[in-house]
Structures are given as C-alpha cells and as structure tokens.
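Please, structure for the following, as tokens.
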Amino acid sequence: MFQRTVLPNGLRILTSSMPHTRSVSISIYIATGSRYESDEDAGISHFLEHLFFKGSERRPTAKEISEAIEGVGGILNAATDRELTVYWVKVARPHFALAVDILVDMLRHPLFAPEEIEKERKVVLEELAMVNDAPERRVETLIDEVCWPHQPLGREVAGTRESVLALTRDQILAYVARQYVPNNTVISIAGDIVHEEVVEMLSAALDDWGRGTPSTWYPAVEADGQPRLGLEYWRSEQAHLNLALPGVGSLDPDRYALGLLNVVLGEGMSSRLFLEIREKHALASAARIDAGACQRSPVAIRTASMSSRSSSMRVAANGTKYLRNPSRTLNVSTKIHNRPSV
C-alpha cells in the first residue's frame, strides 16, 4: 500500500508506511541517464552521480557528507542506468529529518568545485579501465554495441575515456539545470513514516525548486533485422558469450509473460539453461538469461550469458537451443501458492 502526492512544482512523492519498522529508506529518482545523452555528453549522468557527493554549500567536502550519514549508522549511495539516476539513503527513524536534509542539500546546492571535478574525473576513468580489464563485464557492453550500434543505448553508461575527458564544468551545469528539475523527479520513502508529515517536510524543503523542461531520451534506432556479431580477443583462460534476441518494452503487457519465461529458461540453478550447460555437461562456470527492458520502447533483449573455457564454448553454445525454440522444451508444471497473510 502506498500513497502519492504531486506538489505544485511537479515533484512526485510516494510513501509506504511501515510502522512496524525502526528505519526509513529514501530514494530520489531523476529521469535521466545514458539514454538521454548526446555523443558530446556521453557519460555525464554517471559523472554527475559522483560529483553530487563531493560537497554542498553547507557540507563543502565529501567527508562531511558521508560522515553525517555514516556517523548515525546510516547508508548513503547512488546509481546510474540508461533511463534513471537514483540517490538513496537508509537511516534509523530518529535520523529521518537529517537524511532528508542531506539529500536535499546535496542535490539542490552542490558546489561542483573545479578541483573536485578534476579529481573525480580520474576516478571515473579508473572505473572505465576496470570494466575494460574484466572480459566478463566487457562482453555485456559489447552486446549492447552490437544490438544498438552508434546510439546511446549501445554505449557504456559511464561513457568513453574520450568523452569523459572532454566534459566541462559548463556542460555539467547546463545538464543539471535541464534534467534535475522537480517535474522530472520522484521521491519515494518507506518506513515508519506518515504520508502527510513527509509531504509537509518535502514541501518546506523544496518549495523553491522551479519547474523545467527536461529533454527526453533518444529513441532506439531499430536494426535491419540481420544477425550481427561482435568479437574481441582476450588472452585469458575463459571465453565469454552473450546471445541477444529482441524482447518487449518495460510497459508492454507481455512483460509479465517474458519475466516468467525468463525464470524457466535461465534464471536460477533450476533453469533449463543452467541445468543443461553446467549441471548436465559441466561446460561452463556460469550460465544465465537476463530479460532487460527499456521504457516505452520495444528494444529489450533476452540475453544468454555463459563463461567457459574456450575449448568448451562451441559445445556450450549449443545449449542456447532453448532460446531459439523454447516451446519444444517448455513443459512447465504449475502450482498455485497462496500468499500467507501478514
């Protein structure tokens, strides 16, 4: 059960009251990510996620921000994806007001000090290097590049080394002014809270946050329907294979059926793919299927991922027959499980 309020400036507030708990979790979602970025801005959403932690008007250092939350036993973090960026905190109930104050201060009054931008740029470049040092992670970016070539959906969320090096403070400020506006934001709070009190608190803290006109995502450019292949050679003990097929968008009615099919075929140790590749033939150390989806666009992919010694990869790849024709092997027993009352 949740309650929803929209403030006059367009900010959406969602709460779920859980009076039996002793903590509160707060998430601030901004509708922006790598899918919203031009080639010149590639990686800016992720870069910003880092920079908001580097100092605000009332807490000018990263140390002061982190200590304010961790000093009361809380957790503070953030994440960036293709279509959203989220900043979240979890604290004990007595520190709820402090957590709201810190998040609002971070996002509404960041310093973006030039010296901090340059230091954090080095951190982001190291993160990109880390991805390119790990073939099991690089293969996931490679499959995106193959599925969506030369467009934002096919890029690494953090951008490229070249694009991150080229980002300027003026670009950052312009992007924040455009995307970080209340009518592009959702704040969700769950825990021992009362909806009306939350709305009153956030209204007082954010009543001066003016509406804006955020840019929307770049549409997916559909491919020509022909099979495509991406290969990279690594001097390593294992080969990593990803096989992607078209799926459905995150708002498509068939997303529930796809989710169930994903469980049967490749999610977990009882899935068809895992049993065939790992348990039956011991050909790979990992085998799974992920059903990813993007908002309002039928560009999701169903991806079979495997990690295996190179000598076994050809045989292991045959296990993806379940993706090619799942109906041949989809003898699924069904049971009805009644949800226990709480």
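Strands lie at 3-6, 12-17, 23-30, 75-80, 85-92, 185-191, 238-246, 286-291, 301-309. The radius of gyration is 23 Å.
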